[in-house]
Amino acid sequence: EYEGDRNSEGQRHGFGKARLPNGDTYEGEYECGLRSGHGTYRFKNGALYTGNYLQNKKHGKGVFFYPDGSKYAGDWVHDQRQGYGEYLYANGDTYTGEWANNKRHGQGTYVYKDTGSKYVGCWVNGVQDGPAELIHLNHRFKGRFLNGKPLGRGKFIFDIGCEQHGEYIQPVQVKEIEKEDEEEDEPPLPLDPIWKVSEITKITPWSPHDEE
């Protein structure tokens, strides 16, 4: 069902309201039969998008309310979260920063609601990766991350005025000798990197990010 403006060819054009066969509804601007311009799209499952469209795709600025209570407000390109935006997760965590292909990608800040801790730094395809700071209530870690875990040289900076320098080292997996007839098991989960302290100093300007 559609009620609204049409052009001389009879296509939806201008402002209109539509109910789609699947029960979703759209109210907003059309251009030559396609959603283009500003509009509000309500999904039958309770989700809602209000913002800009280009040729039926979310494109430009818009806000998406997901059925689980989470929400994204920011840039869209061809139906994907892309550009800059803020995501409020269902558990109360937030991410503010750059996006590409629906994933956290580039520079961004993730705040953990439960602890108040903050990750400020680089993301690659949704995962913490690259130079970053992890900021806790009375201390912070400055270093590099790889696949969501800290790795390599870094330092902990304590509010009381000292630093602990060191390195996150990836432990080596010890593989047990297997009998020949055993089935290949799932590969073991990678072990968490271990922090090895090298020295404690007063506050210094040294940053692991300088060593590119």
Automatic annotation (TrEMBL):
SUPFAM superfamilies: Histone H3 K4-specific methyltransferase SET7/9 N-terminal domain. Keywords: Cell projection, Cilium, Cytoplasm, Cytoskeleton, Flagellum, Meiosis, Repeat. Residues 1-20 are annotated as: Disordered. It is found in: Cytoplasm, Cytoskeleton, Flagellum axoneme. One of its GO terms (biological process) is meiotic cell cycle. It comes from the Eukaryota. SMART domains: MORN (SM00698). GO terms for cellular component: motile cilium; nucleus. Residues 1-12 have a biased composition (Basic and acidic residues). Gene3D superfamilies: Histone H3 K4-specific methyltransferase SET7/9 N-terminal domain. It holds the Pfam family MORN. Coiled coil: none annotated. PANTHER family: RADIAL SPOKE HEAD 1 HOMOLOG (PTHR43215). Functions as part of axonemal radial spoke complexes that play an important part in the motility of sperm and cilia. This is Radial spoke head 1 homolog.
